[in-house]
Design a protein that fits this description.
The structure is a homodimer of 245-residue chains.
Chain A: E1 6-12, H1 14-17, H2 25-35, E2 39-46, H3 50-63, E3 66-70, H4 81-89, E4 93-95, H5 97-107, H6 113-117, E5 120-122, E6 126-128, E7 137-140, E8 143-146, H7 150-160, E9 171-176, H8 181-194, E10 199-206, E11 212-220, H9 223-238
Parallel strand pairs in A: 1-2, 1-3, 3-8
Antiparallel strand pairs in A: 4-5, 6-7, 7-8, 9-11, 10-11
Helix pairs in contact in A: 2-7, 3-4, 8-9
């Protein structure tokens, strides 16, 4: 049986919890991981608070194959992610010589104490950087530490992804039911029971005529079982006696 | 000293973790709570999995004044939130007579087993419903269970909010720095140290000229201290010797 590779996300930042900034990273990373065969199992959002970051990070890194963090690696006093990660791993942290050298070249006279904070990397971590990324992310153990700015985070995902082990990709197929969720709940449950190696989800929405409608999504790592379950779902929908309201 | 009222959010749903659905509820609830003086401290997203829901819910409800859940209260087999909440509280769950009566009136012959699932309410819970909400949410202990569909969740927040105790509202003020974050990190840290009863955050962004710029946000429950810290921040910005690149 193929290995299941799992992941958690830890979003770090007061601005998300205050509602001032609307997170765009969870959805991006979730979709990215699904596409490379990694199962996202849990997400947590915590404040820029050392104890909260350490507790959440330790909980997630013990449970899942990988943990992706976003936020808190900038140059200001509220950017405490790197130091918190070092404490969670009980390792030291210092200015990374390679990063300092790059910063000296790039910032020249503008390289000040605040910017040097961004060169603080926990001992033993591997840098996540490229020509277009100013302040690096890093990977330590099974934890990948990334920027909170979406465009930078996305560039970091592209750098890290090839280094990750990935599982058998989760396949999915969806169908528009043209039925209210409540009209298909019972038959859908029966199909789910008959196909335990698939995961069947139903998602209500208001369609273009403002009528309640439902998307049904079947997911499985086994293409044959996915197809068999979807065939049953479509047959069930075709046989629906209930007229739409 | 005024009481600090805290909250956690628990988002429940495979579709968020797969990236298929992009969550819109966290940002809405975060902003809502900030506006009524409740501090959102943590968010978790978990799958439609009973053990995961129970573990996360118990962790959050022990730590915070309130916990808001979204998702998993529909009519299909993957909607297991109400049952999981009952198990977390170790109480029974059954079809709520008032909800069943409403459903009979509304659905008439369409009231089937699947729809009746939506009438399952944990013992002792208080319904969260209105004329426009079909399937009710509920409040049990310090936990408020709401729909995942944003428009319904938002209607439920409006019903619940007046019943919650709220703390002294967090005030905030912001200023555009017209400076790179790395140029203001050190003076900003000094101001933060001098005003420990404020929380100063800095948020980099690319401005309309595609230049790196920074928003500075000062937050406090004390209007005078907020103003004093912001005055310092603005004086610091006015005195910046560094020319913009």
């Amino acid at each position: 049986m193929s290995e299941i590779v799992t992941a958690g996300i830890l979003v770090i930042g007061d601005e998300i919890l205050s509602g001032r900034t609307k997170d765009k990273n969870i959805g991006f990373i979730a979709e990215y991981l699904t596409n490379i065969g990694i199962d996202l199992k849990e997400v947590r959002v915590v404040a820029d608070d050392e104890a909260d970051i350490i507790a959440a990070l330790n909980a997630l890194r013990e449970r899942y194959t990988y943990v992706f963090t976003t936020g808190g690696i900038g140059p200001t006093h509220d950017d405490i992610t790197a130091d918190s990660v070092a404490k969670a791993f009980r390792v030291g942290i210092d200015h990374h010589p390679e990063v300092v050298a790059r910063f000296k070249e790039r910032f020249k006279d503008d390289l000040n104490e605040a910017r040097l904070r961004m060169a603080r990397i926990p001992d033993g971590a591997e840098l996540v950087q490229s020509a277009t990324i100013l302040a690096p992310g890093f990977m330590i153990g099974n934890v990948i530490v990334m920027a909170g700015v979406p465009s930078i985070m996305q560039a970091m995902m592209d750098i890290v992804a090839p280094k990750l082990k990935s599982g058998v990709k989760m396949l999915s197929d969806s169908v528009r039911a043209n039925a209210r969720e409540g009209d298909i709940g019972s038959p859908l449950r029966d199909i789910q029971k008959a196909y335990p190696e698939t995961s069947i989800g139903s998602y209500p929405f208001l369609d273009e005529e403002s009528k309640p409608n439902t998307n049904i999504v079947v997911r499985s790592r086994d293409a044959d079982k996915l197809e068999a379950a979807m065939t049953e779902v479509k047959a069930m929908l075709a046989g629906l006696k209930v007229a739409r309201p």
